[in-house]
Design a protein that fits this description.
This protein is an alpha/beta fold. The chain has one domain: Spore Coat Polysaccharide Biosynthesis Protein SpsA, Chain A (Alpha-Beta Complex), CATH 3.90.550.50. The protein has eleven helices and eleven strands. The chain is globular and about 55 Å long.
């Protein structure tokens, strides 16, 4: 269905969260004081989706699993092992308990699975299934290390069709050649979510969750709609952005270059100050 004047869009935002630092701290000090405040002011429902907090041993095994996935013989071995093990569980969806995230004013989807990379495919299925209990026409998935310019996101969603939407920052799976949307920046219409949930056993786990989801959506006959994203790895990089880049973009990836000294929250705060100033100058509604 093509967008028509007067068609109502109902946006739901889902943030993939992890209950360990640096991600939790980035959300608390970076997202909540900036763009999540804008989303709340505009009345956009936001859901924080997370699993159980993993311990040091589990995280170490998970990091080893991911290192092997990208190095040497592990590039072939890990996908095969994951596919073999995962094939027994592709019909399973984690149970979700609805609670609050950080404070009582926010809503969390607490999934019954350990929050590790190896299980992200099931975490996405839990989020997609739970999303269908909500009232939305489009759902936007993002991550803790993302800054979202809410006004621009709403403007983009208003121009999207009501059905068959799978949109986001495009990447290409090196193995299959499938085009897929980054897990940090993707929009799905409700009918696409329903299709994926219905065909969940075809959503394999031999690649990263976003590549696997893109492959399934492609098999369902739905093309990827590319959407822009800008990498802003430092406070200095914020100052190097032009006004036009900020005004034309809704998703900014703030992942710092150093994994040990994350500056995401500071980047978000600096970027938000520029966004507020620019939107006021442009006469764009702030609340």
């Amino acid at each position: 269905m093509v967008a028509q004047p007067g068609d109502e869009r109902k946006l739901l935002i889902v943030i993939g969260q992890v209950l360990v630092d640096p991600w939790l701290g980035i959300t608390q000090t970076g997202q909540f004081p900036t763009w999540l405040r804008d989303a709340s002011a505009r009345g956009i429902p936001v859901r924080h989706s997370h699993g159980w907090r993993s311990n040091i041993l589990v995280r170490s095994v998970d990091r080893l699993h991911e290192w092997l996935r990208w190095h040497g013989r592990g590039r072939l071995l890990v996908p095969r092992v994951d596919s073999w093990l995962g094939s027994y569980w592709l019909d399973r969806v984690p149970k979700v308990e609805v609670g609050f995230f950080i404070n009582p004013d926010t809503i969390a989807w607490q999934q019954r699975l350990v929050d590790v990379y190896a299980l992200q495919r099931w975490k996405i299925m839990g989020s997609l299934t739970q999303a269908l209990t909500e009232d939305f026409t489009h759902v936007y998935f993002t991550t803790a290390s993302s800054y979202v310019r809410v006004n621009k996101l709403l403007a983009v969603v208003d121009q999207l069709p009501l059905t068959r939407v799978y949109a986001g920052m495009p990447f290409t799976d090196a193995i299959s050649g499938t085009h897929f949307a980054s897990g940090a920046n993707r929009i799905l219409s409700r009918d696409v979510v329903e299709l994926v949930v219905k065909e969940k056993e075809r959503y394999r786990n031999d690649v990263m969750e976003d590549a696997g989801l893109g492959r399934l959506v492609h098999e369902l006959g739905i093309d990827l709609m590319p959407l822009p994203s800008v990498n802003v790895p430092s406070v200095r990089a914020v100052g190097e952005l032009s006004d036009e880049e900020i005004l034309d973009t809704f998703h900014f990836r703030t992942t710092s270059l150093s994994s040990r000294q994350r500056m995401d929250a500071q980047v978000m705060q600096t970027l938000h100050s520029r966004v507020v100033e620019l939107e006021i100058d442009q006469g764009i509604r702030r609340v």
